[in-house]
Design brief:
293 residues, alpha/beta, Rossmann fold, Helicase, Ruva Protein, domain 3, 2 domains, 5-stranded parallel beta sheet, two-stranded antiparallel ribbon, 9 strands
Length: 293
C-alpha cells in the first residue's frame, strides 16, 4: 500500500525518497511536519504532492503579514436574525501552512489549539476538526527578510522537521523534465480506520521505552540546553510506530529510533546551524548510549 504511494510521489519529488517516507510516517502517526528551506526549493510542491496522493481533503493557507486568525479559523456572523459560524480553511484533513513564519505571531498562534487538541474555539464555542487532521507547514530560513520566528510552544507541536535534499545533476535534469499537474487525480485513498488499527498492533518492548528514557537523560546531561518535553517523548514513540508501518514491520527496533530521532530533535536545537545538527545528535547523544544485546 505505502510502496505504491511512495512510487507515485517520487515521480514528482525527485531525490527525496527518505523525506517522503518520513512525511508519510508522520502523517499516519497523526503528527505535523515542518519543512524549512530557501524560497523556490520545492517546499510547496513537496507538500502538495504528498497530499495529492493520499485521498484526504486539503487546503492551502498562504501566510502574510496581514493575515488574521479569523482568516484561518473562521468567524461568527449574523444571518437571518441568528448567529452562524463560517468555517475557515483549517476545517480540512491536511492544511498546508505556506511560509508560516511570514505571518504575524497572532496568526501563527491560531494553530496552537488545532495542532494539539484537534479542535478550535471561537467566541467560547469549541468546534472539532475533521479526522484525521494534520499541518504541513513550510518556512523560509530565519535570517530571511520578512520572517517572524516561531515560538517554542508551536515548534514543540511539530513532530518532525527537515529541509529538502540537494539534487545531483541527473536528478535536476529529471526534475526539469517533470510536467507537474496537480489537477490530475493521483490519489490512493488511505483507509484511516485501518491505519489506526494497524498502528495499535505495532509492538514496542520495554527495552525500546528504556532506550528513549536514556536518550532523554543523555540530552539533559549536555551543557547545551535542549528542551525535551513529554510531548516530544510521545512523538518519538508515535513516529517510531509509523516508521515501522512504512517499512512493513510489526515492531519497533533501536535502529528505527536512531533513524527518526534527528528529524524530531532538529527544530528543538537552536545553538547549531542546520548542517551541524545531525552530526551533533549522532555523536553527542546516540553514540553515548550503549544498546544491550
Amino acid at each position: 500500500m505505502f510502496n505504491e504511494i511512495i512510487q507515485d510521489i517520487s515521480k514528482v519529488i525527485v531525490g527525496n525518497n527518505q523525506k517522503i517516507k518520513l512525511t508519510l510516517a508522520a502523517i499516519i502517526s497523526e503528527g505535523s511536519i515542518l519543512i524549512e528551506d530557501f524560497p523556490g526549493s520545492g517546499k510547496t510542491t513537496f507538500a502538495k504532492s504528498i497530499t495529492n496522493n493520499l485521498g484526504f481533503n486539503f487546503k492551502r493557507i498562504q501566510f502574510t503579514s496581514d493575515l488574521l486568525p479569523s482568516d484561518i479559523l473562521g468567524f461568527n456572523i449574523f444571518s437571518k436574525d441568528k448567529l452562524s459560524f463560517q468555517k475557515g480553511p483549517i476545517f480540512t484533513n491536511i492544511v498546508l501552512a505556506d511560509e508560516l513564519n511570514r505571518g504575524s505571531p497572532k496568526s501563527q498562534s491560531a494553530f496552537l489549539e488545532a495542532m494539539e487538541e484537534k479542535n478550535v474555539s471561537i467566541d467560547g464555542t469549541t468546534y472539532k476538526l475533521p479526522e484525521p487532521f494534520f499541518v504541513i507547514a513550510t518556512q523560509n530560513p530565519m535570517d530571511a527578510s520578512g520572517t517572524s520566528s516561531l515560538p517554542d510552544s508551536q515548534l514543540d507541536r511539530f513532530m518532525i522537521s527537515f529541509s529538502l535534499s540537494d539534487l545531483q545533476d541527473n536528478e535536476k535534469i529529471k526534475m526539469l523534465k517533470n510536467n507537474i499537474n496537480f489537477n490530475e487525480n493521483n490519489s490512493n485513498p488511505l483507509n484511516w480506520d485501518n491505519i489506526k488499527n494497524k498502528r495499535l498492533k505495532i509492538n514496542i518492548n520495554d527495552e525500546i521505552y528504556q532506550y528513549i528514557i536514556e536518550i532523554e537523560q543523555t540530552i539533559k546531561s549536555l551543557e547545551q540546553e535542549i528542551y525535551i518535553s513529554a510531548r516530544c517523548l510521545k512523538q518519538i514513540i508515535d513516529l517510531a510506530k509509523g516508521w515501522a508501518m512504512i517499512n512493513d514491520k510489526e515492531y519497533v527496533t533501536h535502529q528505527d529510533i536512531k533513524e527518526i530521532l534527528p528529524f524530531i530533535l532538529r527544530h528543538r536545537i537552536k545553538f547549531l546551524n542546520q548542517d551541524e545538527k545531525f552530526d551533533f545528535i549522532k555523536k553527542e547523544i546516540l553514540e553515548k548510549i550503549a544498546i544491550k544485546k
